[in-house]
Design goal:
By secondary structure, the chain is an alpha/beta fold. 31% of the residues lie in helices and 18% in strands. The protein has a single domain, classed as Rossmann fold (3-Layer(aba) Sandwich), CATH 3.40.50.1360. The strands form two sheets. The chain has a seven-stranded parallel β-sheet, with helices on one face. Strands 4-8-7 form a three-stranded antiparallel β-sheet, covered by helices on one side. Helix 1 packs across helix 2. The radius of gyration is 17 Å and the shape is globular. Fructose -6-phosphate (F6R) binds next to loops. Its EC number is 3.5.99.6.
Length: 242
């Protein structure tokens, strides 16, 4: 696991956007694993800036998001699908049919998790997976205690995760209790992983990720077992690291 320390959120976002652009330009078929949440917002803005200025095309790019809430319709403003179109897809030339997220309102949710896993498995994992990290060390919505061999599955969100995400809803009550998430095993199939951590709220999770034992108490610690991971941390997130 390689650590790249940067000064602040802006530098972190510039690093991540450059990594994604390098990948997008590297081949005529590219798969990207994408994250939602606060951390990648600026990265996506920089991709949009690049698209406006340099017209980097995404016609050959296929995206697979980490997760989606269960019970939120795709077109609702709080869905992760809505977030992705708002923050990125509406502003670049990616074909709609190349965009993949789990369907949180599928009639048969177990079948849906299998469908999503099979699609990623067919690729033998995505080419580049972008990750954030939860304050409790979660990646995707794999909360502490999730076995490392889980593939895409339905997970119950921790109270602290629901609270952290309640900023996107009118009240905590509205935050779903469950989500479909790529599992740790799905994430580990990725050929390359870039994890972004910004702000002092992430400092303890980052400390555990690097220095704690590799255990599902801190799901992100499993990334130490993957051969191609870059962790990009700003000064505040890296403040507990050597
Ligand atoms: C989002 C996701 C989550 C977030 C994490 C950090 O798709 O899977 O693991 O990356 O909760 O969220 P922020 O960036 O809002 O601090």
């Amino acid at each position: 696991m390689k650590l790249v320390k940067v000064k602040n959120y802006e530098e972190l976002s510039a690093f991540a956007a450059e990594k994604i652009l390098e990948k997008v330009r590297s081949s005529n078929r590219v798969s990207l694993g994408l994250a939602t949440g606060g951390t990648p917002v600026r990265t996506y803005e920089l991709l949009i800036d690049d698209f406006k200025k340099r017209k980097t095309s995404y016609q050959h790019v296929h995206t697979y998001n980490l997760d989606e809430y269960v019970g939120i319709a795709a077109d609702a403003q709080t869905s992760y699908q809505y977030y992705m179109f708002e923050h990125l897809f509406n502003h670049i030339d990616i074909p709609k049919e190349n965009v993949h997220l789990p369907n949180g309102t599928a009639e048969n949710i177990l079948q849906e998790t299998q469908r999503y896993e099979d699609a990623i498995d067919k690729l033998k994992g995505v080419d580049l997976q972008l990750l954030g990290i939860g304050e409790n060390g979660h990646i995707g919505f794999n909360e502490p205690g999730t076995p490392f061999d889980r593939t895409t599955h339905v997970t119950e969100l921790e109270e602290s995760t629901r609270e952290a995400n309640s900023r996107y809803f009118n009240s905590l009550d509205e935050v779903p209790t469950h989500a479909i998430t790529m599992g740790i095993a799905t994430i580990l199939k990725s050929k390359e992983i870039v994890l972004l951590a910004s702000g002092e709220k992430k400092a303890e999770a980052l400390y555990q990720m690097f220095n704690g034992e590799i255990s599902n108490n801190c799901p992100a610690s499993v990334l130490r077992n993957h051969p191609n991971v870059i962790v990009v941390a700003d000064e505040q997130a890296a403040s507990k690291l050597e």
